[in-house]
Amino acid sequence: MSDIEIARRAIKKPMNEVAGRLGIPEEALEPYGRDKAKLDGAYLASLDGRKQGHLILVTAISPTKAGEGKTTTTIGLGDALNRIGKKTAIALREPSLGPCFGQKGGATGGGQAQIVPMADINLHFTGDFHAITTAHNLLAAMLDNHIYWGNALGIDSRRVYWPRVMDMNDRALRDIVVSLGGVANGFPRQGRFDITTASEVMAILCLADDLADLEKRLARIVVAETRDGKVVTAGDLKAAPAMAAVLKDAAKPNLVQTLENNPVLIHGGPFANIAHGCNSVIATRAALSLGDYVVTEAGFGADLGAEKFLDIKCRQAGLTPELAVVVATARALKLHGGAEEKTLAKEDLAAVERGLPNLLRHVENLGKFGLPVLVAINRFPTDTPAELKLIEEKCAAAGARAYLCEHWAKGGAGAEALARAAVATLDEGKAAFRTLYADDLPLAQKIETVAREIYRAADVAIAGPAHRRLKTLEAAGYGHLPVCIAKTQYSFAADPELRGAPTGHTLPIREVRLSAGAGFVVALAGDIMTMPGLPRVPAAENIRLTASGEIDGLH
Question: Would you please indicate which residues are annotated as catalytic (active-site) residues?
């Protein structure tokens, strides 16, 4: 049975009952249909000062086509913690339409560890992404409009940094020219589209404390420079108040449920390969105030999402995670070990062992942040006992406890061992969270620290224009910001073909972008694109409506 068929058969509880699991009163809910709701802003403000729960971060090995099941494991662990009597909230990102229609698929889990309504969440949901897209493009329109009507700020059209966005994979829009067609349409200039998940507005929404902070951050967005080198902000264009108005409802976290009717806050969705890859600070803080345990995830492998969760989100929001869980599968380890995709159903202990250094490096890296680490082995039906035993033994030898998880097939019951281990580890109180680098380190050294300590690069090659941009940003007072490295998710290196645990490679930084409102500096490594393209056979070809009006083909 497919994931979407399982989701359709879900027996959902009324939203007031789901909210009641966390003590949320019915009057704090803003219903979006029968099975989705937002949390009222005044209620969220009332949670300030409450005792905070334990924060568990779920991350994974470097992703492969075989899949690791990070979101599925996050949901399974949350269900399992609730099963063993722990008041637990799950905090997730919202899916992007780009991968839903592209190759990766949705982000609502799988099998018996899903959140519902699956089709709604993976498509339009409550309209948050549409609001973010609109707010972003409103600023782009006001920028070009200002230039058209006399350009009182003296904007240099050669130094316009603000793109347009859409929530779709469309490589044809990566490099464009706008305002063609003569005087009536403005001044032609080069531009681009990014995917909405790469928008700074998305990052701002996910890092803001509240609506007031959201508007202040929006005003700080740097959109261009003047002819004499001064920055032009959204505040200068008087765009921030209207942008905040568009985002008023999008700033409220969404409440849904798992197949086992446990509460899930799902909010925001920046990609981890080209953005910071974490759900919103507002949702995470709400979850911590409502639950004794909070299970959250960060996108892609631990070198991307987890590093950015810890070095950007936790740094800015003052969050203190206490445990990391790294998800791995025997299938994915075989691919990291050089096995071919068509052979993954066959036992191959040698390939598993060759692939294990990828997992063990992620475990070791997370220890640098002062976090205890558990390994979740997400079981597939084709895994053999010998393969699973090998993973457990090698993890134990490296000082990491690994637990076999069967939540895909059994729901929360299949992850109880991991849940009990998580509780026991948290009870030990050994976490001593720390960020990887200090605020006052120069920007180039921050990039080098991540490259050396997390990617295990031997060198960093920063292109001349990028190096000059870093110096300019430091001179302008942005040197204290953390760095967000945009890099392929498929490897520790910038080359996606370097599987496993490569060393001795060079991290090439080709471009640097300032996200002043979000509060970080983006460094683009290698060939990473901020507007993905569709694969040769996109998933959209298999998505359709059934005769009864149900959506089919989502995965």
Answer: 70, 72, 93, 104, 272, 300, 380, 408
Name residues whose C-beta falls within 8 Å of residue 513's C-beta, 6 or more positions apart in sequence.
Answer: 161, 521, 522, 524
Q: Torsion-angle region of residue 410: left (phi > 0), alpha (psi -120 to 50) or beta?
A: alpha
- Fill in the amino acid letter for 183: V
CA distances from 141 to 192, 442, 543 (A): 13, 34, 33
CA–CA gap between residue 489 and residue 298 (Å, rounded): 12
Tokens matching residue 465: 């224009």
For residue 507, count other CB atoms closer than 10 A to its CB: 24
CA gap 149, 157 in Å, rounded: 14
* Buried/exposed code over 252-282 (b: 16+ C-beta within 10 A; e: otherwise): bbbbbbbbbbbbbbbbbbbbbbbbbbbbbbb
**Least-confidence region, from 238-247, 254-263, 420-429, 536-545:** 536-545
Q: pTM higher than 0.90, yes or no? A: yes
The DSSP symbol for 313 reads I
Contact 117, 36 (CB under 8 A): yes
Q: Is residue 390 pLDDT above 80, yes or no?
A: yes
Secondary structure letter of residue 93 according to DSSP: P
E-state strands within 438-505: 459-462, 483-486
Strands of the 520-525 sheet, one edge to the other:
459-462, 506-515, 520-525, 483-486
In 3D, which of 254, 371, 228, 179 has the Cα closest to residue 15? 254
Which residues, at least 6 apart from 424, have a Cβ–Cβ distance to it below 8 Å?
none
Distance CA 325, CA 485 (A): 22
How confident is residue 104, by pLDDT bands cut at 50, 70 and 90?
A: confident
Q: What is the DSSP string of 108-166?
A: SEETTEEEESHHHHHTTTTSHHHHHHHHHHHHHHHHHHHHHTT-TT-EEEEEE---EEE
